[in-house]
Amino acid sequence: MEVIRTINELKQRVSEAKANNKTVGLVPTMGALHAGHLSLVERARNDNDVVVVSVFVNPTQFNNQEDLLTYPRTEEADCALLEKAGVDYAFIPSVEEVYPEPDTRQFDLGPVAEVMEGAMRPGHFNGVAQIVSKLFDMVQPHRAYFGEKDFQQIAVIRRMAEICGFDIDIVDCPIKREADGLAMSSRNVRLTPSQRAVAPAIHKALEEGKALKETGKSVAEVKKFVVDTINAVDQMEVEYFEIVDPLTMQPVSEWKDSVNGNPVGCITVYCGKVRLIDNIKF
User: Which of 46, 143, 185, 210 is deepest in the core (most CB within 10 A)?
Assistant: First the structure.
């Protein structure tokens, strides 16, 4: 595996691969890699001749400076994992390399970016669109891989690709979970032992909510149950729980209102100061 620090070198390596008729897969990450990331890498490895993984904590998508400063950075461990996973190129640039000057672009992301994370973290999705569009432009991969834990983010990236005219296959990959059900996340390392012990209550409540839906309970009843159940757990507080159409991300008030497939329950919970997200398909 080769570690690349500059955009020029990255473009050179990718153009060499494409000149040899090789397909290129991109896995954008913010590092602090875990088995969830590696499942994306494995999928990319199976689908493509060449795999590029970016490791970059993108400052423009953090609307909370403390969250940016405390975001885990584990470059040496990340590189060891990527090498073992058979990655060809790890792109690990500096902030100055990616943003030699401020990125002032504003993306018209529409309704998919205005609810849930978009409402709670103003500017977050515009920052995501900035960095992913830059990576798409640098690599111009045949396929790019994203985890379904960030379910709304995938819809936003599809919208950004549409706006920018990127002809890239955006591949969404299932959530990877710990043995106790907690969705794998780089932020999990910030949980105290007592917080880590209660965090699986998020997925458990979502599963119980799904079972309630099967018994004929309404959207409102399932939402109330999930929120009340999690809020009853010490150190846990739900920021939002919405049940949405899987393409438009718009909340539904009845199960039949989800016209683009089965509705998805998207949740964000503060466990102490650590913000955890998860979702479930109903």
Answer: 185
Other beta carbons within 10 angstroms of residue 186's beta carbon come to 19
Which token pair is 233?
A: 């757990």
The predicted-structure confidence for 14-65, as pLDDT tens digits, reads as follows 999 999 999 999 999 999 999 999 999 999 999 999 999 999 999 999 988 8
Dihedral pair phi/psi, residue 108, rounded to 5°: -85, 85
199, 259, 205, 195: which is closest to 227 by C-alpha? Answer: 205
β-bridge partners, 143: 25, 169
Residue 274 carries which side chain, given as an amino acid letter?
V
* Dihedral sign computed on CA atoms, order 9, 12, 17, 23: positive
Backbone angles phi, psi at 37, to 5 degrees: -60, -45
Neighbour tally for 119: CB within 10 Å: 12
Query: Domains along the chain?
Result: 2-173 (3.40.50.620), 186-281 (3.30.1300.10)
The two structure tokens encoding residue 220: 């409102």
Residue 124 known to be catalytic:
no
Type of residue numbered 126: N
Q: Is 144 exposed, middle or buried (0-12, 13-18, 19+ CB in 10 A)?
A: buried
Q: In terms of Cα–Cα distance, which of 149, 121, 108 is closest to 65?
A: 121
Strand pairing report for 50-55 and 2-4 = unpaired
DSSP state of 176: P
Residue of 37, 124, 142, 203 marked catalytic: 37
Helix, strand, or coil (residue 212): helix
| 274 beta partners | 271
- The one-letter amino acid at 137: D
Rg of the chain, C-alpha, whole Å: 19
- Note the residue count of the chain: 282
Q: What angle do CA 11, 15, 16 make, to 5 degrees?
A: 120
pTM (2 decimals)? 0.95
